[in-house]
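note to self — DONT lose this again. spent like an hour looking for the file last time. sequence + predicted structure for the chain T wanted, 164 res
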Amino acid sequence: MSDRTPQADVPDASARTRTTGGGAAATAPKQVNTAFWLYIACAVLSLVGMIIVLASMGSMTTRLQQSGQVSGGTASAAVGIGVTLNVIFGILFIAAYVLFAVFMRRGANWARIVLLIVTVLSLPGILGGYGIGALQVVLGVIATILVFIKPASEYFRSGRAPRA
């Protein structure tokens, strides 16, 4: 007989752990880790969408000029302001999304709630971004569902235990 521990009993090294109020380490369920990577994929898709917007800046200016409603300089300025705001808010959104996903993976229930709100607010984006918006919304919805069903919900609930 071997005194080695069966492989199934050894915790996955890639799984994140946190300490609960009693001092015991709680391992994040696979659902939480999967949701984390889905949220990261959403952030990457936001970056891709931002790059697409930047790449299409010239065609937007041309379409505005050809509409005849604005002059060339006004069209360039309007597109420039729009793209600048898109990049600024896009970078802030990506950074916040990743930050909230990291905290969610560590077991912060508030981060799970924030990601739920962000996902709900992103639902209108399903129509934009050349299909990237739809993919981002679908991934966000799947990730949000994963963190609200068992055993993930129990993982987040265990963080509310009274501190010793």
